[in-house]
Amino acid sequence: MSIGFQVLRRKRAASIEWIEKFKALPVANISDVMHRLTAGGPRLRPYHASGVLCGIALTVKTRPGDNLMAHMALTMAQPGDVIVVDAAGDLTNSIIGERMMVNAQRRGFAGWVINGAIRDLEWVKRNTLPVFAAGISHRGPYKTGPGEINVPVAIDGMVIEPGDLVIGDDDGLLCVPFDQIEKIYEAARAKHAQESSSFDAIGLSDQQADCAKLTMLLAEQGCRFEA
């Protein structure tokens, strides 16, 4: 085995049916039912025109500024896949640009997550192929390796394993672990339904009663009120 320089096959993957189900749910609701413990970090932001990122993770780990393994991942990905590239968050050199994004778009991939920089921002902003990245750089990448494909990667403490479900919207990026997909979906769907049904009542409750409840809660926590 060549340590740090290997191409592995994905051993398991979320079914394609979960993509459309999770697309209908806000990332915030999914995050809530996961106890708000997981996140892709505030630097990873959507740069595309519009639309939710949701797909099955094909992971790439590469040295900063090198995209050799990202090119290899393009030859391995399937429709519905999100190519997740951990380039250590370095913004010196871009990892992907317009040509690689067009390739992914035409092959029906679900999008890109780049823990690093991208370029050709004008194209990204005009298109709906989901692209999350840590930043922008006009400086192109190197193509010498090393790197690994289909290994666990960690972005800002969020572990993404090959075959996990990756979802992102304007609020940020989240990974749903493969073995928890159904449980998390049912909880998030219920959370979303509960919040949606309560919107009509917002602002219509008894303000004095609300104040009394909050006053009691604050007092229990030791809050001092000015006389």
UniProtKB/TrEMBL annotation:
GO molecular-function terms, A-Z: metal ion binding
Cofactor(s) listed: a divalent metal cation; Mg(2+)
Residues annotated to bind substrate: 97-100, 119
Keywords, ordered alphabetically: Magnesium, Metal-binding
CDD domains to which the protein is assigned, alphabetical: RraA_family
Domain of life: Bacteria
Residue positions binding Mg(2+): 120
Pfam families, alphabetized: RraA-like
Protein name as it appears in the record: Putative 4-hydroxy-4-methyl-2-oxoglutarate aldolase
